[in-house]
UniProtKB/TrEMBL annotation:
PANTHER family: KDP OPERON TRANSCRIPTIONAL REGULATORY PROTEIN KDPE, REGULATOR OF RPOS. Pfam families: Response_reg (PF00072), Trans_reg_C (PF00486). CDD domains: REC_OmpR_KdpE-like, trans_reg_C. This is Response regulator. It comes from Arthrobacter silviterrae. Residues 3-116 form the Response regulatory domain.
Length: 224
């Protein structure tokens, strides 16, 4: 099932979209403001974001910027603002599409289907290759110099999150929340142990990694 993050400060809209999208086979994660939206995006596997630009705690453009710092998840903007400048700014900030309020459910569903298709096409490359190792995302396999590398489920989950965000800083909190759960968001020692194990298995020189990089005090980065 496709998971949609709905960000809107109007409770009746959140409730209506939850009911209607669920009836059409979607899983809905609601967020009433920008802060909750950014947290939800880190703690759930979100496929599409539907974002109202007019939020009580921050501008929708700030939410787009926050998301685009680490994910390419499709973003559909909801706007009651009829000036084209707002839409242009949202698209320039990284949004993929927009719907103007009031909107029909059929229109939103069509935009969701289109966004999901585009995301699927972008994710069609199942192999991530480096000079040292290859990650087969479709089959959840890792090989190094032609030999299969045994991965524990946790090692795989950490590695997959990093390689799906090549070149981007993935925060410690995000990795801990997605792999272990939100209750473990501060248990950074888990990450140090598992990153050391992954480097021993995949890096030519684990003490001087070139693919699984540490950004001190912030997180980790995968460099192909």
């Amino acid at each position: 099932m496709t998971t949609v993050l709905i960000v809107d400060d109007e409770p009746q809209i959140l409730r209506a979209l939850q009911i209607n999208l669920h009836a059409h086979g979607y899983t809905v994660v609601p967020a009433p403001n920008g802060t909750a939206a950014l947290l939800a995006a880190q703690t759930h596997a979100i496929d599409v974001v539907v974002l109202d630009l007019g939020l009580p705690d921050m501008d929708g453009l700030e939410v787009i910027a926050g998301l685009r710092g680490w994910t390419e998840v499709p973003i559909i903007v909801l706007t009651a603002r009829h000036g084209s400048l707002d839409v242009v700014e949202a698209l320039d900030a990284g949004a993929d599409d927009y719907v103007t309020k009031p909107f029909g459910l059929d229109e939103l569903l069509a935009r969701l289907r289109a966004a999901s298709r585009r995301a699927g096409a972008q994710a069609a490359e199942p192999l991530v290759e480096t000079p040292e190792f290859t990650v087969d995302l479709a089959n959840k396999r890792v090989t190094r110099r032609g030999e299969a590398v045994r991965m524990t489920p946790t090692e795989w989950n950490v590695l997959e999150l990093l390689v799906r965000n090549p070149g981007r800083l993935v925060s410690q909190q995000q990795i801990l929340s997605e792999v272990w759960g939100p209750a473990y968001a501060k248990e950074t020692h888990y990450l140090r142990v598992y990153m050391a194990q992954l480097r021993r298995k995949l890096e030519a020189d684990p003490g001087n990694p070139v693919h699984l990089l540490t950004e001190a005090g912030m997180g980790y980065r995968f460099s192909p």
